[in-house]
Amino acid sequence: MSYPVGEVAGLAGVTVRTLHHYDEIGLLVPGGRSHAGHRRYSDADLDRLQQILFYRELGFPLDEVAALLDDPEADPRAHLRGQHDLLTARIEKLQKMATAVEHAMEARTMGIRLTPEERFEVFGGKDPEEHAQEAERRWGGTEAYAESRRRTARYGKDDWKRMQAEVAAWGGRYEALMASGEPATGEPAMDMAEEHRQHITRWFYACSYDIHRGLGEMYVADERFKEFYDSMRPGLAEHLRDAITANAARHEG
Predict the structure, then answer these.
(1) Locate the HTH merR-type domain: which residues (predicted)?
(2) Using CA atoms, how far apart are residues 224 and 138, in angstroms rounded to an integer?
(3) Pseudo-torsion of CA 233, 237, 239, 244, nearest 10°?
């Protein structure tokens, strides 16, 4: 079978102009032509286009893509294995970014006053207003909510990035603490819970031990928060909740 350029463009999600360009530079020369001289693509051409788009998605420039695909020593299976490794590494990086974003938004991150460009640069495409609306529904009439709105309205892109770095570092250390077998009621876990409380106080509002205890319960009761924490490590939501409770008792007692 062979396929016209318009159909191939639609299947691959690229423009006809892109396919014309690939043909002009010799990256993807269609295997046939119609009687009228129009490009016709074979199944082999489609396989090559898929490889091209994989590498382009991974950020490879066109000349490097051509060199990789035209290497006479290359095994097609090796290409797929290499692409799988590259994609896996990219997924891991994106997951770490998502973790940092979710931490920065957790509980009461709202009132962001960034340009649209800055917002999506910082948050990787996830609109923080969605979280802000949930926060307003839960706590819109509280002084803590009002204080958080006042503070975050002054934050710029660098502030949000600095906050992200803090919470990402905290999250990595908490995950390591759990991996080492530390109980939630142990001093190291309680110290981590105290850091968590102080982070909220520093960036958003005065988080009392009573408020913090309520947040800990929410991390377990609210499916969205529980899913987020448990995606980092199974059981993390309950572990953090118990550490927060123990830390509050330690300070209030």
Answers:
(1) 1-71
(2) 14
(3) 140
CB within 8 Å of 188: residues ≥ 6 apart = 177, 182
pLDDT tens per residue, the chain (253 residues)?
789 999 999 988 889 999 999 999 999 999 999 889 899 999 999 988 988 888 787 777 888 788 878 876 766 666 667 767 777 777 777 676 666 555 545 534 444 444 445 444 444 444 443 444 444 555 555 666 577 667 776 777 778 788 878 888 888 899 999 999 999 999 999 999 999 999 888 888 788 888 888 888 888 987 877 887 787 788 988 999 999 999 999 987 6
Residue pointed to by tokens 């819970």? 193
86 vs 90: CA distance, rounded Å: 6
What is d(CA 236, CA 11) in angstroms, rounded to the nearest whole number?
Answer: 42
Residue 159: CB partners within 8 Å, gap ≥ 6? none
